[in-house]
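Reopening this ticket.

The earlier resolution said the output was attached, but the attachment link was broken on my side. Pasting everything inline this time so it's all in one place.
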Amino acid sequence: MDGYRFTMEKRVRYSETDAVGIANNLSFFRYFEIGRTEYWRSMDAILPEIERKTLGIVMVHQECDYRLPAYPDELLEVGVRTASVGETSIVTEYRLHRKETNEVIAEGNTVHVTMDAQTRKPVPVPDPIREKLSRFENKSF
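Inline output:
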């Protein structure tokens, strides 16, 4: 998938569909989340600060542009990339497409903010996270 260094496959389950037989709109956000989790896992980007519960990364915004429906048992490919890293925020972009035809069915993004887990106040994105994202995406953040 052009412009996405990380992709993964996700099959649409029947339980993710609605009364008209297509993937429910909320399912697309789940696909983004599954992709994002595997994206971070692929970089081994979990930090001791997160594991010790001193750093939090919280979602403050999400959006999705729906292009085409997704059907039960259809194999999708989820592309994930970091678009930008600010002082306290990380913007992640997503693209879903049909594995068989390569048609784009949805695109979206999320914004996450790093925060002190005790005070719940924004803190700078830790350098180790910024460095891992820069190395993985092959661009400077």
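Reporter confirms the inline version is readable. Helices lie at 25-42, 48-51, 127-137. Strands lie at 6-11, 55-66, 75-85, 89-98, 104-116.
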